[in-house]
Design goal:
This protein is of the alpha/beta class and 431 residues long. The protein contains 14 helices and 17 strands. It starts with a strand and ends in a 13-residue tail after the last strand. The structure holds xanthosine-5'-monophosphate.
Length: 431
């Protein structure tokens, strides 16, 4: 292992992730653990050079103020405490200002860490770890083409080559060009063992006539698992399932003192249904680090810097019962808005932007004739954590251009509207 590590022990702070990110930004790797980790468990972790006790408002559990195992204080590993009076340790800070000077002094002078946290070292460490863990066994990955699964695939291809099998399920609800790009990048350029499943008819048939958003989501999730299971059961000798779990998924699903912040609504249920061991090489990375890792592995920018996209895909943007023609119109208008945002230099500047189509028509006029067609609605928002969001303030000239293109290039559309609602009251998606 190349990287030195600083452990953060959660003693009730809500700023554990912020602190971990700050330490990593200073060049040293850091992970967050529950307060009651034992010294034996600490010793099993690689290259631990220092421990930070991170106290905070959630430090009372079952009516008692929590502390770390006493051996942590006598282990010989330097300890720094933020907001934790009980600590008989090297350095105590009685406030929660993680100022750079205090941190740098502790990390580099007291603990003697090197600033060796970078993506090159992360990748070579992960490859070594995965080779050790997996040996010559076989691994399966559901490769959606999203950032996380793409980076997992690229890492595993480097680590174990053809012992990785990727399954890409095209459910017909992906954005324009996405299934083709998965085949191009992973199947052709990286030479992955890729199984491409065209399940478009199967999904759209199952969804036909279903109006209720929750039912649509459930059908998409369940069908995905079924298709994946069917394909997986045709393969022999697979022992591991790779997943694109990232650090916020783990931190947010609760340390011992923090309640789950947000429930995740990904297409779930795979690990419970199948008896695989899990490989999760990104489980200690924050999202921007996952992107940096993908970039380092040579994945294309439009894959690595892709905006968030819901698991049920365009299925929740073709409102009400999905029809093929309206789905196609959502896909085409989405491609146009992405292209125009890119041309206007807004890629990466606006957090999320997309189009959706409701299931009603309105009267318009095209080529001097009555046109009874759908409206396209533009949604463009900025947010930090997707829990609240504000609308992006766009230039009229850009909106004019997008409107002109959508109404002339997308079949069946005669109007374009712009959604002005922040979250709350609107959610980002409409379904
Ligand atoms: P809402 O609509 O809840 O969306 O304001 C917040 C963010 O989550 C994305 N989203 C999903 N992501 N699976 C996902 O992985 C889903 O089922 C899902 N639904 C919404 C949404 O695009 C936005 O970025």
């Amino acid at each position: 292992m190349k990287q030195d590590m600083i452990l953060i022990l959660d003693l009730g702070s809500s700023e554990n992730s912020a602190l971990a990110r700050k330490i990593r930004a200073l060049g040293t790797y850091s992970e967050i653990y529950p307060h009651d980790i034992t010294i034996d468990e600490v010793k099993k972790l690689p290259n631990v050079k220092g421990i930070i006790l991170n106290g905070g408002e959630n430090n009372i559990v079952d009516g008692l103020k929590i502390d770390v195992c006493p051996e942590i204080y006598n282990s010989g590993i330097p300890v720094l405490a933020f907001n934790h009076d009980a600590a008989p340790c090297n350095i105590k800070i009685e406030n929660n200002s993680y100022d750079d000077d205090t941190l740098k002094k502790f990390i580099f002078d007291t603990c003697g860490c090197e600033a060796n946290w970078n993506m090159k070292n992360f990748i070579s460490d992960q490859i070594e770890l995965m080779r050790k863990e997996i040996g010559d066994k076989k691994v399966l990955l559901a490769l959606s083409g999203g950032v996380d699964s793409s980076v997992v695939a690229a890492l595993l291809i480097k680590a174990i080559g053809n012992n990785l099998t990727c399954i890409h399920v095209n459910h017909g609800l992906l954005r324009k060009g996405e299934p083709e790009q998965v085949v191009e990048v992973f199947g052709k350029e990286l030479g992955a063992n890729l199984i491409y499943i065209d399940a478009v008819d199967r999904f759209l048939d199952k969804l036909a006539g279903v109006e209720d958003p929750e039912k649509k989501r459930k059908i998409i999730g369940a069908e995905f698992i079924e298709v994946f299971n069917e394909e997986a059961s045709k393969l022999n000798g697979i022992e591991f399932l790779a997943q694109g779990t990232i650090y916020p998924d783990i931190v947010e699903s609760g340390t011992k003192t923090v309640k789950a912040v947000k429930s995740h609504h990904n297409v779930g249920g795979l690990p419970e249904k199948m008896s695989f061991k899990l490989v999760e090489p990104l489980k200690f990375l924050f999202k921007d680090e996952v992107r940096a890792c993908g970039k380092e592995l040579g994945l294309p920018d439009n894959m690595v810097y892709r905006q968030p996209f819901p698991g049920p895909g365009l299925g929740v943007r073709c409102l009400g019962a999905i029809t093929r023609d309206r789905l196609e119109a959502v896909r085409e208008s989405d491609a146009i808005i992405r292209e125009e945002f890119k041309n206007a230099g807004l890629e990466g500047k606006v957090w999320q932007y997309f189009t959706l189509i409701p299931d009603f028509k309105s009267v318009g006029v095209k080529n001097n004739a009555r046109a009874f067609e759908w409206p396209v609605i533009i949604r463009a928002v900025n947010t930090v954590d997707a829990m609240t969001a504000e609308i992006a303030h766009l230039d009229w000239a850009l909106l004019d251009k997008i409107t002109a293109r959508i109404t002339s290039e997308v079949k069946g559309v005669n109007r374009v509207c712009f959604d002005l609602s922040p979250k709350p009251t609107g959610t980002i998606e409409w379904e």
